[in-house]
Amino acid sequence: MMKWYRKYMTAVGILGQLLFYSEFVTISKNQSAQNVSLFGFICSLIAVFSWLVYGLLIKDKVLITSNIVGAVGAILTVAAILIYQ
């Protein structure tokens, strides 16, 4: 049961991080970050990075995998916001 649940949580963790990529694509496509909160995405980047570090410290593959996906997406999104503000 635990093995299945870890796979499920990895998938859910990755899918949950796709918000960053969706926002990044929208900002890049429109070349505008007019209605996007830089503060909000910086807070999210800090949170995702913190969870990634925690996952590394406790050697949890689910946390590491999902938060690497999230960290990359958050960095791309924050960069896009800064470029297209």
Brief synopsis:
Helices cover 87% and strands 0% of the residues. With 85 residues, it is mainly alpha-helical.
CATH architecture: Up-down Bundle
Beta-strand residue percentage: under 5%
Briefly, what CATH class? Answer: Mainly Alpha
The major sheet is characterized as: none
Strand tally: 0
Please report the distance between the alpha carbons of the first and last residues. Answer: 47 Å
The geometry reads as elongated
**Low-pLDDT residue intervals, each spanning 5 or more residues:** none
Outline the secondary-structure elements:
Elements: H1 2-30, H2 38-58, H3 61-84
Helix pairs in contact: 1-3, 2-3
Describe the structure.
The chain is an all-alpha fold. It has one domain (2-84): Monooxygenase, CATH 1.20.1280. Helix content is 87%, strand content 0%. The protein is built from three helices and no strands. It has helices at residues 2-30, 38-58, 61-84. Helix 1 (2-30) runs parallel beside helix 3 and helix 2 packs antiparallel against helix 3 (61-84). The chain is elongated, with a radius of gyration of 14 Å. The protein starts with a helix and ends with a helix. The mean pLDDT is 95.
Keywords:
3 helices, 87% helix, mainly alpha, Monooxygenase, 85 residues
